[in-house]
Specification:
- The chain has a 6-stranded antiparallel β-sheet with strand order 5-4-3-8-7-6, with helices on both faces. The chain has a two-stranded antiparallel sheet with strand order 1-2.
- Helix 1 packs across helix 2 and helix 6 packs across helix 8.
- It is an alpha+beta fold.
- The chain contains 9 helices and 8 strands.
Length: 247
C-alpha cells in the first residue's frame, strides 16, 4: 500500500530542520521524497491551514507556519516545564544578564524549550524549539551524562566536530561525562560556536519512584574564567527551585 496523505504531509513538514529553514517547492519535494505535483498540492493545503507560510509576500520559499508553533506550545514539555521554570530562569537572567537556556533531551539531541537572550555579545546558535548535538553544548552534556547507556554509546560512537574545539574523542568525552555526574555541572569552551562558552546544571524530578534528570538549565557567556563558581551557583539555585516546583 502506498504512503497515506498524512504520511506525505508529515514528510513535507519534516523536510525543514535547523539547517533548512526556508525551502522552495522543488527543494521541499526532493527532501520529502515526493513528486513535485504532489508536494505542490500538499503545500497549498498546508499553506491555507497555516502549517506553512511564505518567507515573505510573493517569495518562492516556504517556511514553517505559525499554526505549528501554536500547537507546539500545547505540548506537555512546553506548557508544564516552561511554566514552572519561567520565574527561575528570569532570576538567573537578572543575576547574570547572560543568555539562559532550558533544555530537555529528545532522542540523541538536545531540544531547547526556552531561552532568554542575554545582553552580552556572544554567538548563540540555539532558538526555542531548535535541536543541537548533545555532546557539544553545556545543557546537552548534562543531559547526555544522565542519559541511558544506549544513548551515550550512540553519541560517543560518532560525535561530530562542529568547531576546532569540539571534543570528539570518545574516551575524553566519556571522562568529561563522568566529571559532570561527579561535579554536578557541565561546561564547554567554544565547542558549539567560536566565542561562546557555556555552563549548565541538571533539573531533577521524581518519576515513578526514582529521581531522574528531566531537564537542564544553562548559560552562554563570552568566557568562564573567574565567573564560573558564581554562574554555577546561580544555576544550581534555579535548578533546585524548578525541581521543588515540579514535585
Amino acid at each position: 500500500m502506498g504512503a497515506t496523505v498524512t504520511s506525505r504531509a508529515l514528510a513535507l513538514l519534516s523536510a525543514f530542520d535547523e539547517h533548512h529553514r526556508q525551502l522552495t517547492l522543488t527543494e521541499l519535494a526532493h527532501r520529502a521524497g515526493l513528486p513535485v505535483p504532489t508536494a505542490h498540492r500538499l503545500a497549498g493545503e498546508l499553506l491555507a491551514w497555516g502549517a506553512l507560510d511564505r518567507a515573505s509576500p510573493g517569495s518562492a520559499h516556504y517556511v514553517v507556519g505559525r499554526r505549528l508553533w501554536d500547537l507546539g506550545l500545547l505540548a506537555p514539555v512546553q506548557t508544564g516545564l516552561r511554566h514552572v521554570a519561567s520565574p527561575f530562569l528570569h532570576d538567573v537572567y537578572a543575576a547574570t544578564l547572560a543568555t539562559v537556556h532550558l533544555a530537555v533531551r529528545d532522542g540523541d539531541e538536545v531540544l531547547y524549550v526556552d531561552r532568554l537572550s542575554g545582553r552580552q555579545s556572544v554567538p548563540v546558535v540555539s532558538e526555542i524549539g531548535s535541536r543541537l548535538p548533545l555532546h557539544s553544548t553545556g545543557v546537552g552534556k548534562v543531559l547526555l551524562a544522565h542519559a541511558p547507556a544506549d544513548v551515550r554509546r550512540r553519541v560517543l560512537a560518532a560525535p561530530r566536530r562542529i568547531t576546532p574545539y569540539t571534543i570528539t574523542q570518545p574516551g575524553r568525552l566519556a571522562a568529561q561525562l563522568d566529571r559532570v555526574r561527579r561535579d554536578g555541572y557541565a561546561q564547554t569552551v567554544e565547542e558549539m560556536s567560536l566565542g561562546g562558552c557555556s555552563v549548565a546544571v541538571p533539573v531533577r524530578q521524581r518519576v515513578r519512584g526514582t529521581v531522574q534528570v528531566v531537564a537542564a538549565v544553562g548559560l552562554v557567556v563570552p568566557h568562564l574564567r573567574r565567573d564560573k563558581p558564581r554562574l554555577v551557583a546561580a544555576l544550581t539555585v534555579a535548578a533546585e527551585g524548578i525541581s521543588r516546583s515540579l514535585r
